[in-house]
DNA sequence: GATGAATGAGCGTTCATTCAT
DNA sequence: TATGAATGAACGCTCATTCAT
């Protein structure tokens, strides 16, 4: 008759995930500016007041979305095998594929990046994730330099930064603000890195 | 005793400029999300109702800010003399200087880029400016390729896009989301382009 | 301990009715021109924001008032027994009584009539109600003509219109714009119709 | 070089008249609710601030419109020759013609009637005019009764009131709130008065 | 007399949050 | 846990009016 605790918790976790996803899509479509708790609750079929049982404040929900997005992105960068050059190529291809399949991810990422400048809590989350990403890229590049894949004088850290920066601004390209396709610029990056 | 017409107009234009600047700084500090007409008016020492004497709606004011920012950026890219390689180097240096002296410009530029995805009026302004910038860069690169400054197989358009994309995401770097300085990534770009 | 559903709904409906009544009195006193949501809410002891919990917009509330007024008036015209002449006499007496007891009803009715000319939604409501009233009167008059209560050449439709028009302008009389009492003009109408 | 005083005054009076007319048309179209001084000024090609040189306040302008409308209507009722029955018939025909040619006049008249209930200054103007009209009608009717045109027991004052009341509500008919034409009801009034 | 500039008071509406049930 | 009801603070915008020029 009565659901046991784990079931309740499970249901609660599902609800939380559904709310995060709904908020994520809201932000992708209308930006942080257009994020409304009532909308999010309605998308999940919840009363707007009930939402506060899962997220005490709007800020808490936003932080959950930030965590969700950064973790989604981190999944793109987990691999262990192959040469440094193969790893980097795989990573860039994974990113490119993600851009095509789910451009929303990069839109929200940009929104988060902007908000991180004003919100220390968000900044902390983003910073941690970005540093991890940067370290990963730097590691690959340094390994490649040691193996002779890239010239000795390539600045690994700077190159890693350039890659991240380029990635994060691709939503601007996808938004058709630039008269080219994202692939082109990405290909140029690969050429610079002599990835083919 | 009586002010001449140009003086009156001049005063009005000054007010308009002051309001645009105040809005610009508000956006830089708090984003579009935090842009409040009452704040902007107060910064200029005006009643919030008077603001509507200069801008009929909030949207009109925002568009004025967008125009201001894109034109400010366009000024960085106006030069006529020197070889293609010198021109590109000068341009990148001017951008770098701008990033250091007034990082707010790039914060607002990112805000605008995000908003352009949802607002056709803003998109039109940004698109026009970005296309102009892209054409300028492509022209320089193509000229350089013809002169042998860069290899024959350099994709001028893609490279131009990469430069723009990199530039537009530098605010994320300046926001200390990356453990490096903007200069480093910019230097890497210059190295790729064999600018020194 | 726990209120049942009908009670909850009942309370909500009571609030809605109270708000409609408050708006009705506001319009009677200050016209549509002077109708303020904050006033209405305060009359019911509610925060003005809460009013939007019951009526999404001011227009929705106004329409509710229009429906309320037209239905109130329709109640004056519901009867089934008696000869046509008796029915008409009863109807006119009911209207007269209403004018004396609640002149506000006719003030608001005039406000509505004026607004109906510019507002299609209100016009639809008023039109429907007025047409019903006109049909009722025409029916009574035609029945009376068949029974010989009134002369064969009496134009039933035109007479019905004249009665309605006269009724709707009585608020002007009650407002003491005419140096006579409403009863007098109403009596004259009855004499014309040989109602006594 | 410089216009003499009478010319200036003349020009000023023309301006005042133009403003009154513009306001009149605004009220006819959008009601008192939609009357905006800026609109009125613009219609006459005047700066909104300049309008205040001719009418110190909005209320003053409204009163001028009220006077204009009541005087326009009074012109319909000025005649000296003919038998009482001929005079009344002529008057009703003149009114009917006015309704057809310029229904706006009756719309504004209704607006004024409603506003008169709340505004003593307007009430005073309307009352004076209405009383005059009522007296005129009563005079004609009494003269007709003495001459045997109408039955001895006709209540002259009540009949006059009924005529005025009917007239003032014709805009509701013209607004197509009633499924008949104004002429029909007016004809019925004439039949009651045995005008043909 | 004419006008651009400025203002105060106020409006309808929004929304995250709280709370009793 | 769930929800209808309620609220305060704020927002963009309007408009009659005032005033210096």
UniProtKB/TrEMBL annotation, chains A, B, C, D:
Residues 36-55 bind DNA. Residues 13-73 form the HTH tetR-type domain. One of its GO terms (molecular function) is transcription cis-regulatory region binding. PROSITE patterns: HTH_TETR_2. It comes from the Bacteria. Keywords: DNA-binding, Repressor, Transcription, Transcription regulation. Transmembrane segments: none annotated. It holds the Pfam family TetR_N. This is HTH tetR-type domain-containing protein. It comes from Reticulibacter mediterranei.
């Amino acid at each position: 008759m009565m659901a046991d605790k784990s079931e309740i918790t499970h249901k609660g976790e599902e609800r939380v995930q559904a709310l995060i996803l709904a908020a994520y899509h809201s932000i992708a479509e209308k930006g942080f500016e257009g994020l409304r708790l009532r909308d999010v609750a309605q998308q999940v079929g919840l009363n707007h007041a009930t939402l506060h049982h899962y997220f005490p404040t709007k800020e808490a929900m936003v932080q959950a979305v930030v965590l969700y997005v950064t973790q989604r992105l981190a999944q793109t960068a987990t691999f262990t095998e192959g040469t440094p050059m193969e790893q980097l190529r795989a990573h860039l291809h994974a990113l490119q594929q993600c851009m095509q399949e789910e451009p929303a991810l990069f839109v929200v990422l940009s929104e988060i990046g902007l908000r991180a400048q004003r919100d220390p809590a968000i900044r902390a989350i983003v910073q941690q994730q970005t540093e991890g990403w940067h370290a990963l890229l730097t590691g690959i590049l340094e390994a490649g330099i040691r193996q002779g894949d890239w010239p000795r004088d390539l600045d690994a850290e700077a190159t890693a930064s350039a890659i991240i920066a380029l990635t994060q601004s691709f939503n601007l390209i996808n938004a058709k603000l630039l008269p080219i396709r994202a692939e082109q610029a990405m290909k140029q990056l690969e050429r610079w890195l002599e990835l083919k």
